């Protein structure tokens, strides 16, 4: 770790003084783009700021960052204020997962369900800017978010025609990614398409785990030593189109999907020892997924009508979202000594289907100067179906199974009022949601149930613009989460020494927060400090307990959370060709489960530090290190040990307009393996786990990106559309 920090400090101190003598030059830096024009000994210099603060959002100009030529969108997110990407590529916004992802201002189910995979394959060169919408308003607050991550795709404004790009990358872990983007204009219609492919080999997905668990009631200790891989192929595609009927009417539509299939293989040894370390039993496990596939598809259509009054508009929207997941896993046991069960393997077959129809109406009307009112209504018809069977390889081939259907009807209405005058602006809104949930068991093994939920969701904010560079804002937000089918499905999954089942009686969770963000945006320094307090009294959470040596897992609205948090973002440009960036999140978290009389409080710091240096011959050298100091709560039972990741990149652009970009990346070059450790310190089961993933260890990567053509216009979108992302614990959410 010391070697890495010294290397990062040395990298950040590099300064290049090479200049290109010319009457007119263009100089690109990681945080600005500057044009120098020489006029009789006088140099006029205009700078393009990388970061911009608006009334309800923070905007990152991706194209002003030279790294965008060869980096992915996931790489760029690490530089965003209020965004964190941890060592497992889990994205956090404002320190949590209560956010949704939009694309061009519209909710994108493809990104929201599969953000980790899609954003790692999406080139940053296709993205114009990334926005963190910190104050979404009553129109969206109820739906499980207190922030929105909006990815705005590129639009070029030169000549009409066709534009596009192709990209490819290869890692020494045998991980290959390919992709292409194409956009064209045909009369009043504009169409764009994006396709990506990722080939994941056994080497690139290799992982190993080591667990020790002690059963408090019996004193027995379980040891699990396993390894495996998830080779497979993933495809994603997205098509967008818009049609201008006339100057007041616009129709836009999109269709996209994500598909992957994996050949999962793995296994290991499991043993149980008593308190004196005498062996009780042992066996070896081998598992495979002969049939595993996941499909996610979504389509959307919006109609926008602009009124004669400036900025007055009416929008009608419809969205369809589908997810189909099939998981067939076979597990076999061998070398069994005192095996505690009467079977030597089992076949588990799980089919899950999700279908959602959403209809929405939004109306925005400016009132007198400085006043606006937005109102709307929404209806969601959501259906989940799950079938789960297990066939045990015993003398009689015992088969167990369960089927569960869950439906939800959500009706909502909202009003949002916005006001601005001089240096002051304010926003206040209220949303009401009624949810009707019904559970049905086709096999008749359990009684059907239904439930009505009523939620009022207020929000408010006040902002003061101190001067052109500084602002201060007070924000209060409320949002809710609803349980998904994974949490609700009562089907019992039985495995050696563990049992898992859902809880059909779960309700929605109410999350609240209050914050005071301050921001300074200067020519060489950008600073944001965002202290906030978050609290929840009925959060959805795991419930883990033991009966003898058997571990049980279910879910409940049992968690009380309190979080004091300070997010800090610093971007400093000490020299023309040097940029330093730091993204820090300090938090103090309390997790309290009164039902089990357990509580855990932890203090931690998540950090991301980046340095970039321009070199001669259009080269750029950059590096980053990110990780966690202190211990972070996973739930009321478990916390994470400190960890870190780091990488170095050298890149260069070629050809006219730098349309060809090449980069070489060394990930964790001084560490073959990067460990991720967890400890369970309370509850019926205590222990520790050590995880190693090939994707986080040493690798070398070459990436190429080529842009071609230019386009005068981009695909249009309506200003508002449908957004759904309120589910926690379901197949429809995979951030």
Q: Can you tell me about this structure?
A:
- It is built from six helices and 44 strands.
- With 735 residues, it is mostly beta strands.
- It has a single domain (2-728), classed as TonB-dependent receptor, beta-barrel domain (Maltoporin, Chain A), CATH 2.40.170.
- The protein has a 33-stranded mixed β-sheet that branches. Strands 4-5-10-11-8-9 form a six-stranded mixed β-sheet.
- A hairpin with a 3-residue loop joins strand 12 and strand 13.
- The longest helix is centred in the first third of the chain and has 11 residues, at 2-12.
- It is globular, with a radius of gyration of 27 Å.
- The model is unreliable at 1-47 and 729-735 (pLDDT under 50).
Task: Give a short overview.
With 735 residues, the chain is mainly β. Helix content is 5%, strand content 65%. The chain has a 33-stranded mixed beta sheet that branches. A six-stranded mixed beta sheet has the order 4-5-10-11-8-9. Strands 1-2-3 form a three-stranded antiparallel beta sheet, with no helix packed on it.
Topology, please?
Elements: H1 2-12, E1 24-28, E2 33-39, E3 42-47, E4 51-53, E5 57-61, H2 73-77, E6 83-85, E7 91-93, E8 99-103, E9 106-107, H3 109-113, H4 115-121, E10 127-133, H5 138-141, E11 147-153, E12 162-171, E13 175-186, E14 189-200, E15 207-215, E16 221-229, E17 232-246, E18 249-262, E19 265-273, E20 279-306, E21 313-337, E22 345-366, E23 371-392, E24 399-421, E25 424-440, E26 449-465, E27 470-483, H6 485-488, E28 493-495, E29 498-500, E30 509-515, E31 518-521, E32 525-547, E33 550-575, E34 578-593, E35 598-615, E36 619-630, E37 632-633, E38 638-640, E39 643-654, E40 660-667, E41 675-680, E42 685-693, E43 699-709, E44 727-728
